[in-house]
Amino acid sequence: MLRYFSIRLLRAFITIALVVTFAFVVLRMSGDPALIIMGPEAPPEVIAAFRKAWGLDQPIWLQYVHYFGAIAEGELGRSMRDGRPAIDLVLERVPATLALTIPALLIKVGIGVPSGIYAALHRGSAIDRTVMALAVAGFTVPSFVLGLVLVLIFAVQLGWLPSGGQDSWRHAILPIVTLGVGGAAILARFTRSAMLEVLGQPYIRTASAKGLAWARVVADHALPNAAIPTVTIVGFMVGSLIAGAVVVESVFSWPGVGRLLVVAVANRDLAVVQCILLLVAATMVVSNLIVDFLYGFLDPRLRTGAAAGAH
Questions:
Q1: Which of 10, 15, 141, 289 pairs with 283 at a CA distance of 20 to 30 A?
Q2: What is the dihedral of CA 62, 67, 72, 78, to 10 degrees?
Q3: Buried b (16+ CB within 10 A) or exposed e, 174-187
Q4: Is 199 domain-assigned?
Q5: Which of 189, 227, 220 has the alpha carbon at shortest distance from 203?
């Protein structure tokens, strides 16, 4: 058990370090923040002073060492735009993002999982075909396209809902639905596939042959075994609560972390972008760790297999 969890924790730290390194290198190769923030018309001496003030005149490897040293001390840098701590700017936007993503997650699970189970239990029926057709449509349509269609219908044509902003709860309806539809479609497909695979196993036929009621066979044998792949998808969705809202927040002008990331990237506000990416990576890693730990408790074979593979 200890070895199983230790391996997962080590992988988590390595993943975060790789994400931070990748973001650090790519951001510094994508453009000079001094030219973007100060403007190309700024005098050369002003540009040079800006670079020196923010350490951009140092070799990239030295910037990298200083950056990781600051992270180890709990310092995530300051915004080049207003000088405020980057973590403060990001945390201010987190509640707005969670106000969209948590209700959207409830929609994904509340619609996707029951729909997938029902479709699997009625395989080949008209309901099954309808659920799968809707799931394919919801899965393939990009979120920004769906968001624009919803705005066109419910904001422009019908005038029932606002097209953007955060002035009231009504402004959150369209972005929540936009986020929820695609995830519900994914969950419906995966849940149906997992259920069909489990329903085809010999132990399901054996349980039915022993005279157990079908409802009990499904509840006691099919659903618990089909839960593992579904938990994987739900864990990924929990991990992407922040990252998954980038496009939708931009479409609906929602002042969350996703929109802040888009603005910070455009402005080459390095500390803010790095802080957001670090937060996203940490969220994804923590959710995956929780899923791995659940695997270890739900299925001891995975735990013992990981321990054996480490020898």
A1: 141
A2: 150
A3: bbbbbbbbbbbbbb
A4: yes
A5: 220
Q: Is residue 249 part of a domain?
A: yes
Cα three-residue angle 86-275-57, rounded to 5 degrees: 75
CATH of the domain at 181: 1.10.3720.10
Round to whole Å and give the CA distance between 129 and 113: 16
> How many domains does the chain fold into?
1
What pTM, to 2 d.p., does this model score? 0.79
**Which residues face 78 on adjacent strands?**
85
Q: Report CA 70 to chain centroid distance, whole Å.
A: 26
> Number of C-alpha atoms within 13 angstroms, CB side, residue 11?
14
Structure tokens given for 250: 């931009």
Question: Residue 308 has what pLDDT?
Answer: 47
Long-range contacts of 181-184 (CB under 8 A, 24+ apart): 181/107, 181/138, 181/146, 182/138, 182/139, 182/141, 182/143, 182/146, 183/104, 183/105, 183/107, 183/108, 183/112, 183/237, 184/107, 184/108, 184/111, 184/112, 184/115, 184/135, 184/138
Please say if the pLDDT value at position 311 is more than 50: no
78 φ/ψ angles, rounded to the nearest 5 degrees: -125, 150
Q: pLDDT band at residue 306, thresholds of 50, 70 and 90?
A: very low
Of 226, 243, 139, nearest to 185 by C-alpha is 139
Neighbouring C-beta atoms of residue 225, cutoff 10 Å: 19
23 found inside a domain = no
| Residue 129 domain-assigned (yes or no) | yes
Give the start-end residues of each E strand in 18-159: none
Q: State which residues form the domain around 212.
A: 86-309
What is the DSSP secondary structure assignment for residue 207, as one 8-state letter? H
**Res. 5: pLDDT tops 80:** no
